[in-house]
Amino acid sequence: MVTSFVLKVASRCNLNCSYCYMYNLGDKTYLKQPKFMSISTIHTFAEKLAHYGKENGLRSFQIVFHGGEPLLLPKEFYKESVRIFTETLSDAYFDFVIQTNGVGLDEDWYALFNELNIRVGISMDGPKEYHDRYRVFHNGKGSYDEVRHAIQIGLEKGMHGVLSVANLNISPNELYEEFKSLNVPSFNLLLPDGHFDKLPDDLIKDRVNTYDYTPYADWLIELFTIWKSDPDRPNMRFFKTLIQLIAGEDAGDQMVGLKKNGVAVVETNGNLEVADSIRACYEGITRNSINIYTHEISSILEDPLFDIYINSHQMVSEKCINCPIYEICGGGFLLNRYSNENGFDNPTIYCHDMIKLVTYIQNDLIDSLPDEVCKEMELNRVSYDEILEELENKGPVSIQKNIKDKLVAYSLT
Ligand code: SF4
User: Fold this and answer.
1) Minimum CA distance residue for ligand 1 atom 3
2) Is the pLDDT of residue 22 over 60?
3) Which of 351, 362, 391 for a ligand 1 pocket mutation test, highest count of atoms within 8 Å of Cβ?
4) Which atom number of ligand 1 is nearest to the Cα of residue 355?
5) Cα of 26 from ligand 1 centre, angstroms
6) Minimal CB count within 10 Å: which of 214, 242, 348, 413?
7) What atom of ligand 1 comes closest to residue 329's alpha carbon?
8) How much is the average pLDDT of 386-396?
9) Does the pLDDT at position 35 exceed 70?
10) d(CA 232, CA 167)
11) Is the dihedral of CA 180, 189, 284, 267 positive or negative?
12) Nearest CA to ligand 1 atom 6
């Protein structure tokens, strides 16, 4: 069931980050979108949400104000939006979040977000030298100074956390020290967007998912070791989720685990779509005709791409179903599985990285727990080589034909 809605309140941004899926990874359809979401769209969406909640017995929603850059809208927009949501769904609980690049985020904005109970997340890519290489204004100037300032003010004003894209060019130690020096209570990492035919810049095409090429795992293992040995470590959701999954807990998100994805995107014009980073597959892949002005929210479930997205940890390639760490990796994030040849019928571009990382963390967990606890948790030592060997052999479970047909329907060959 969809309970989290990412509202693309602005389809333009004041930054021009080189890796951005919105503007720099192959989809230009944002140019046809209104620049900003109108209050009338918020109104219509809130009414449809009330109906959808009633139909499905749902009273708890997450609303994420996202962009482009959401701070390009005036403060009045947020006051009005929160008023409309809380009045239209007066018996619902809302978790309001805003994800911003931090440019222009000052005391006045924080005061407003505190008043409206909107949690603030800021995107930052580490030390100045690196952040300013990727997260630049349209004139090429880096945004580090502004963003650092916004984080520093936010530490006292209730900033929720910092989000970073893993970057192999930054040493894990430097990245960790940067966030420690900022005193952020929580930071999360995303793996770079990309797929088999549009790999992230730092991956070498011919070596992806080969035996001795696991650059992200090597980088993440180093970061994990630093993080784990710090008695005063900040919360790192990426590692925490993996540990929970290894321990058999019900955890996960669109990247890992087996949970269904309960997130839908509302575009500035009211279109309902899948997670917008999927746009990086090819021009227009996420576009459909489902709009909140003409459709109910539940219509999104009829979009075949949304069907794959919401079930993306169940609709996986044959290799994944037979993988010993499938319950932890979940086959990875849908975008990262895409290839022009097979559509979504692939393991992720980070497959070997995930195997190496998960085996490392699992073995590390075993080393730090008493034997009887590991036994109770059914935790066994695992090895990267053994898992790869197992994956080489065709597994006992075959992918269902109807699922395979859905996954390959998006191939371009
Ligand atoms: S590690 Fe690779 S094969 Fe295993 S579930 Fe993940 S993507 Fe699939």
Assistant:
1) 320
2) no
3) 351
4) 1
5) 26
6) 413
7) 6
8) 91
9) yes
10) 23
11) negative
12) 331
**pLDDT (mean) for 41-52:** 98
What's the rounded mean pLDDT across residues 64-72? 92
Give the CA angle between residues 59, 65, 70 to the nearest 5°: 165
**What domains, with CATH codes, occur in the chain?**
4-309 (3.20.20.70), 312-408 (no CATH)
Using the predicted structure, report yes or no on whether residue 124 has a pLDDT greater than 70.
yes
Say if ligand 1 is within 6 A of residue 382 CB. Answer: no
Phi/psi of residue 18, each to 5°? -65, -30
Q: Atom 8 of ligand 1 has which residue's CA nearest to it?
A: 320
Instruction: Give distance in angstroms: CA of 240 to centre of ligand 1.
Output: 19
What is the Cα–Cα distance from 331 to 354, expressed in whole angstroms?
9
246 lines ligand 1 (CB under 6 A): no
pLDDT at 29: 61
For residue 388, how far is its CA from the centre of ligand 1 (angstroms)?
A: 10
The residue type at 181: S
Return d(Cα 199, Cα 19) in angstroms, integer. Answer: 11
What is the C-alpha to C-alpha distance for residues 380 and 375, in angstroms, rounded to an integer? 8
Provide the pLDDT for residue 27: 58
Q: What is the pLDDT of residue 125?
A: 84
Which range is least confidently modeled, 82-86, 242-246, 263-267, 281-285? 281-285
pLDDT tens-digit readout, 203-240: 999 999 999 999 999 999 999 999 999 999 999 999 99
